[in-house]
Amino acid sequence: MISRRRLLATSGLSAAALLGVGSAAQPALAFREEEATVQDVWAVRDAQARCRALSSHDQMLAVLQAELAGGSLTPEDRRRVMATATCPTCGQLLGG
């Protein structure tokens, strides 16, 4: 008869061995670099120009300032949020 401790130890080792073999067979899930095409670059530039032309950055910044003013953040935290806020359309920093 096999003890509970031995059963758990051997099944844990077996599972670890199987996972090890499975992970060696497949490449790790990770980010990979891809080169941007000319169309990608122009799409980003168009989005940035559209944001500036509509002055949406100024509007988003004003809304963010109003929301932060009513919150419980310290002035240091408010400055940090304002410095790192980005436009969801073009990805540019709103504060800069």
From TrEMBL:
<protein>
    <recommendedName>
        <fullName>Tat (Twin-arginine translocation) pathway signal sequence</fullName>
    </recommendedName>
</protein>
<feature type="signal peptide">
    <location>
        <begin position="1"/>
        <end position="30"/>
    </location>
</feature>
<dbReference type="InterPro" id="IPR006311">
    <property type="entry name" value="TAT_signal"/>
</dbReference>
<keyword id="KW-0732">Signal</keyword>
